[in-house]
Each structure stands twice: as structure tokens, then as C-alpha cells.
């Protein structure tokens, strides 16, 4: 279980919002009240860009550090104003009853447009009751929308902390298939496992057979569990010692 | 939505076909304000982008057979703002949509009630530029009821309305659609009356509404007729669309019509109005259209399946004439 100073984080995000959106948009946003009025909550979430715009936020280094201290691994660098304000709104939605809370947020996921989905998946590490979102996160990895995948895969501590091994392996493989930058996956080296190494080697073999390239980062992961000499042979296209998994 | 006519009704028009020469309108940009991309292939997106279509509107419609549960509607609406929007972006075409309960399915009242409940979840979303396509098909009391209810929704959300006009008893259906919109206090400039023809256009324009024309083979307007309509009425408040869908239709109807207008001596300015500018003006009243987004600026981070990144507005091309697929 990860340490989250939820109140401290809310305050920090509120400050960043103050720096980045108009006074009118702030007044409107800060007047939004949680889940008491569901229809107002859904509407506020949907029309966020009309109020806040979609501008890249400015944030200084000390704020970045403080945010990272309030929630390890969490970053809002390079976010847009609508994304940040949506995540802020989601953080106000703490409900008494887990079921109602879950159903409300889940409905946003199931009706989300592209940018809404990006905000929703970026919010996973700061939503309360992390265990509620494991299946949702695994579902998001099945998306084919690039920006949605990146919201889950890049600089997001939630998957490494919460996904089980099959879902984690699926995410890494999906990242490889969709040509993502593997170095931005939080926990890439801490969550690597023998089964993933096997899948990676099988995949490299398949690519070799098809006359296609692989991301070199793949070998750096596999070598943690597979003999380095064998790996070096495979890299050169020598698969004599390879046995299909 | 298009054809309720059967294949047998269709007659192949006489005359020598002329080939479409895109060079006639090279460098022009087009906005197709009514096209059902969900029913089209990736090749169509590529062809549209090549022909100069920079943005489009996909109205929510009938999928060819009736849906039986509200979740089917929910998933369809979310695909219009999600997956389809992403698919379009891969080709540098800005994708907008209008959201509504179409007239045919309004006749299933039990389901229609449930659909009405979820519409507010979607109409405020980014890139939703209107309530549509709504209106009359059979002109039943149920259709009227939900047309009225959705006009109220549009008014509340401050969105334009995209009105489908019926195939049968068209003239009267069109008049009724306008009368009811006025009755609900919608300003004519917030209402786009779609699928016009020579019989309906005069009154639509005189009453201050936008008149959209669907260039759709066999059942709606042909583009030669469209050239004549533009000559007769001028380009103000007139727009053309393809309404391409799962029927025999043409996603290049807008650029082809522009080309035919050019060859027929219609001015570039008039062509621009009816194939681009008027539709932008009408639907930008939603506050959701920013022309800077049309520039084929593709989100550099958007990637698709196992394809490599292909920015600059292009998906990787395959050579269809080659027997080799690599």
C-alpha cells in the first residue's frame, strides 16, 4: 500500500489550478460539490474544457517535487488544464458508500470520450480505494487509443502497484506491440518476472522468423531471467539453444 | 440516415460517366457535415483525406437494424466520441459528432425513454457539435414526442440541431419539423434542415433555417442537380454533405460536388461556402469547433495497433496493386 497524503495533494493541485486557469473557471470549478448532485457532477466532468481550456499547464520544480512527495511516482508535468481539473474533480468525489462511488466513476469510464479517458486513467493513482480499479485498469490496457494507453503506461504508478502478474505482463507486451517508450513505464524493472521473460523471448523469436526488428529494451528485461550468453546468441539470430515456451 | 428504398427501386442514370479529376479542386479544403464513418472502411478515410476533407460530423443514427437495449445506445454514443474520433485522427481528419435519438428508434417508446435519460451524459462532451440527427421518419406521434423532447435538450445545452427530414411525405414533414422547432423557441439559425431537395429548399431558406443537401446516389440529390440549386438560390446558408453510410453512397460526395461546381463555372467563393464555410459557421455555434484543429495536426502521441508512427497526417500506405503483403 502506497503512502498518499490525499489532503496535501489536493491542496497542491488546487494551487496549480489557480496558477493556470482563469478566475471565472476557478470559481466555477471550486464550487463543484462531489457526488451529492450526480447530474451536476457528470456535466461538470464533461464540459470541463469549455471552462478551463485545454492549455498545457505551467508548474515549477518545487511544486513537482512536493507533488511527488505527497504521492510517490505521481506527476502532472505536461498535463493540460482540462486533464488536471478533471482529476481534481474526481478527487472530490469520495463517497461514503463504495458501491455508489464505484458505479459513478465506472459510468464515466464507460461513456468517456478520448480526453476524458486520458484524465480518468491518469487519476487511478490518486483515487481512493485503489483495489476497486484493478479490473478497470486491465480493461484500459485493451484499448487501442494511443493516448489512453499512454495515460496508463507512462509515469503512472498505479499499474505496478496494483496489477496482478498476468495483467502486468499484458501491459508490457501491449506497450511493445504499440511501440511505446518502455523507459517511461513505472516499475518496469521491479515487476519483471520469469513468465514475462519467456513471453519476451518467444516474441523476439516470432519477430525474427518474420524478418522484423525488436525494441532493444526487450533484451534488457529478458536478461534479468535468461542467461546472458543465450541472449547474445539470440540477438545475432542464433536460436539453436532456444526452446519454445 | 438514408435509404428506405429497396435496391429494385434504383435506376442507373443514363449518360456517359465522366471521371473525377481531383485536380479541379486541388488545394481546396472541405468539411462534410454529415457522414456515418462507423459504417465505412479505413480506405474511405484515406480517400477523403487525399481529396481535401479536413473535418467531418458524424450524426448519431440508425445502424440498419433496431437496437434492443439502452446499453447498445450508450456504447454507440461513446464510440462516436471515442474510438471513431481516434480512428479519424489517424488520417488527419478532425471528427465531430452530433448526438441524438433517431426518428425510427423513437418508435420504441419504452427504449426511447431510457435513451433520453442518458443523452445528457453525452451532449455536453467535447466535440459534440449538436443534437442530431433527429426529426421525422414515419411522422408518428412517438417520433413527434421525442423530436420535441430533444429540441428542448438542444435549447438547454445551447447546441444546434441537425434535422433529418423524411423520405415519404417529405415536403409536409419538412414544414412540420420547422414549425415545431419554432414552437419550442429555437432560432432558425440554430437549426440545420437536412436532406433538402428542389421542392423543400425555397421555404427552408425563406424561413431562415440552414438548408443541407445530401448528395447520395439514386435516392437523394445528384450533384448535377446540386449545381443548379446553387445557381438558383446562391450559396448563402446552403451546405452539402455525403451522408455516406452502410448503403451505396459516396464519402467523396462533397469534393466531387465541388469539382463539378468548379467545372460548371461556379465561383471558388461560392464553392467554399457550400462545401466548407457554411457548415463550419452553422455548427461552430456549439462553441465546439476550432478551425486550428483542422490542420491535420495529429497528436504525436496517438498510435494505433502495431503500426509505426506515422505522423504528418499519414497512415502507412499499402500498395494495393502488389501481390506482396509485408
TrEMBL record, chain A:
InterPro entries: EboA_dom (IPR047715)
Protein name, as recorded: Uncharacterized protein
Species whose genome carries this gene: Mucilaginibacter hurinus
From TrEMBL, chain B:
Tagged with keyword Hydrolase: yes
Record-level Gene Ontology MF annotations: hydrolase activity, acting on ester bonds
Classification via InterPro entries: Metal_Hydrolase, TatD-like, UCP005295
Keyword Hydrolase: yes
One Pfam family per UniProt: TatD_DNase
Keyword annotations from UniProtKB, A to Z: Hydrolase
Source organism superkingdom: Bacteria
PANTHER family, per the entry: HYDROLASE TATD
Protein name: Hydrolase TatD
Amino acid at each position: 500500500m502506497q503512502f498518499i497524503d490525499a489532503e496535501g495533494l489536493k491542496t497542491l493541485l488546487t494551487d496549480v489550478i489557480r496558477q493556470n486557469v482563469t478566475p471565472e473557471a476557478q470559481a466555477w470549478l471550486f464550487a463543484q460539490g462531489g457526488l451529492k448532485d450526480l447530474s451536476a457532477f457528470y456535466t461538470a466532468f464533461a464540459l470541463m474544457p469549455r471552462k478551463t481550456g485545454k492549455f498545457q499547464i505551467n508548474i515549477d520544480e518545487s511544486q513537482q517535487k512536493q507533488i511527488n512527495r505527497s504521492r510517490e511516482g505521481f506527476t502532472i508535468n505536461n498535463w493540460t488544464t482540462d486533464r488536471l481539473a478533471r482529476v481534481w474533480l474526481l478527487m472530490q468525489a469520495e463517497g461514503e458508500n463504495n458501491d455508489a462511488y464505484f458505479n459513478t466513476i465506472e459510468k464515466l469510464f464507460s461513456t468517456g470520450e478520448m480526453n476524458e479517458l486520458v484524465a480518468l486513467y491518469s487519476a487511478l493513482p490518486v483515487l481512493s480505494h485503489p483495489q476497486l480499479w484493478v479490473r478497470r485498469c486491465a480493461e484500459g490496457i485493451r484499448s487501442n487509443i494511443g493516448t489512453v494507453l499512454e495515460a496508463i503506461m507512462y509515469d503512472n504508478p498505479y499499474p505496478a502497484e496494483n496489477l496482478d502478474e498476468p495483467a502486468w505482463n499484458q501491459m508490457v507486451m501491449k506497450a511493445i506491440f504499440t511501440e511505446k517508450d518502455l523507459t517511461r513505464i513505472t516499475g518496469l524493472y521491479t515487476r519483471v518476472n520469469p513468465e514475462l521473460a519467456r513471453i519476451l523471448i518467444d516474441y523476439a523469436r516470432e519477430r525474427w522468423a518474420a524478418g522484423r526488428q525488436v525494441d532493444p529494451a526487450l533484451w534488457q528485461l529478458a536478461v534479468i531471467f535468461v542467461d546472458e550468453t543465450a541472449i547474445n546468441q539470440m540477438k545475432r539470430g542464433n536460436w539453436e539453444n532456444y526452446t519454445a515456451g | 440516415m438514408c435509404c428506405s428504398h429497396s435496391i429494385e427501386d434504383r435506376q442507373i442514370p443514363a449518360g456517359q460517366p465522366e471521371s473525377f479529376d481531383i485536380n479541379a479542386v486541388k488545394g481546396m479544403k472541405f468539411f462534410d457535415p454529415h457522414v456515418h464513418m462507423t459504417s465505412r472502411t479505413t480506405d474511405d478515410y484515406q480517400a477523403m483525406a487525399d481529396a481535401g476533407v479536413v473535418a467531418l460530423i458524424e450524426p448519431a443514427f440508425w445502424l440498419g437494424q433496431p437496437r434492443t437495449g439502452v446499453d447498445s445506445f450508450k456504447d454507440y454514443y461513446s464510440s462516436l466520441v471515442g474510438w471513431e474520433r481516434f480512428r479519424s485522427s489517424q488520417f488527419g481528419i478532425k471528427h465531430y459528432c452530433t448526438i441524438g435519438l433517431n426518428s425510427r428508434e423513437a418508435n420504441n417508446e419504452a427504449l426511447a425513454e431510457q435513451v433520453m435519460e442518458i443523452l445528457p451524459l453525452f451532449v455536453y462532451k467535447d466535440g459534440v457539435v449538436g443534437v442530431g440527427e433527429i426529426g421525422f421518419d414515419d411522422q408518428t406521434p412517438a417520433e413527434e414526442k421525442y423530436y420535441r423532447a430533444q429540441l428542448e435538450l438542444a435549447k438547454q445545452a445551447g447546441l444546434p440541431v441537425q434535422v433529418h427530414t423524411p423520405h415519404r411525405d417529405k415536403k409536409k414533414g419538412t414544414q412540420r419539423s420547422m414549425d415545431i422547432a419554432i414552437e419550442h423557441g429555437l432560432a432558425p439559425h440554430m437549426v440545420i434542415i437536412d436532406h433538402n431537395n428542389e421542392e423543400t429548399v425555397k421555404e427552408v431558406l425563406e424561413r431562415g433555417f440552414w438548408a443541407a443537401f445530401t448528395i447520395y446516389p439514386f435516392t437523394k440529390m445528384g450533384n448535377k442537380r446540386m449545381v443548379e440549386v446553387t445557381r438558383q438560390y446562391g450559396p448563402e446558408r446552403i451546405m452539402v454533405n455525403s451522408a455516406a453510410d452502410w448503403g451505396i453512397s459516396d464519402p467523396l460526395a462533397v469534393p466531387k460536388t465541388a469539382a463539378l461546381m468548379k467545372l460548371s463555372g461556379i465561383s471558388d467563393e461560392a464553392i467554399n461556402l457550400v462545401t466548407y464555410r457554411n457548415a463550419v459557421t452553422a455548427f461552430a455555434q456549439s462553441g465546439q469547433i476550432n478551425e486550428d484543429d483542422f490542420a491535420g495536426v495529429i497528436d504525436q502521441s496517438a498510435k494505433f495497433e502495431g503500426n509505426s508512427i506515422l505522423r504528418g497526417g499519414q497512415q502507412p500506405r499499402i500498395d494495393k496493386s502488389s501481390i506482396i503483403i509485408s
